[in-house]
Structure of NRDE family protein:
Amino acid sequence: MCTMTWNIEQGSYHVFFNRDEFKTRSKAIPPKQYSVDGMQVIMPLDPDGGGTWFAVNHFGCTFALLNYYQGNLPKGDLVSRGSIVKHCVGFSAFCEVYRYLQSANLHHFAPFSFVCFMPEGQKGWSVRLFQWDGVALSIYTPRPPISSCAFDIEQVIEARKLAFEQMIRALPEGVNTSLDFAQLHQSHHAHAPTLSYCLHRHDSETVSFTQLTVDHLAIHLSYCDGPPCQTTMSERVSMMRSMPPEHHLDRAV
Ligand SMILES: [Zn+2]
């Protein structure tokens, strides 16, 4: 269970991610900067699976993983999906992600939605959704929000989409909207708490909120280590951005 939204602007983009988990799951290790095979990466870590659900590398490429409950669970032993983000975190082009997912044995993974942001040309940004439904891999150019939920999925998706559209309609054009996006992610549905962006169920809740900004020069990641409606943001983690190799600035997928 998770919800993500984003806003791509001229030369920069912002991602907002609520992680919803069962209350029995261990607390994640908040985001820090790591060196992975010579690549600087900012990511939180999940002590249960040993992987992560969200990472950004020093090229400014972002990788976010959500469950896809509408898919079919493959039979046999499954590998934690958190390993997918860690495997792809050095990539800087969609074609690299696609090649890896095509070559990996996805039948060892439960269904997932894998959202990646990559540079497009010298200054632009692009987003793709790689979706594994337990049978086949599909690629989409998604629109926000993306939600995953184990219960009442259609109702939840519809309610969160409606709340997103209402927020966008209420914004004056050309205004920096990161604060509005952050407020949406800590909002509660007026009548049905289980449809909220900030989720509170008897067995599960929104356990963290991640806010990322990538611009031409730098990467900034802030994190709420608890339900965003009642937790203040931690000090943000930042790093300078490097340009990826020229030949990676493509739209091969
Ligand atoms: Zn809340």
Summary: The chain has a mean pLDDT of 91. The two ends are 27 Å apart (CA to CA). Residues 188, 198, 200, 227, 229 surround zinc ion (CB under 6 Å). The longest strand covers residues 12-22.
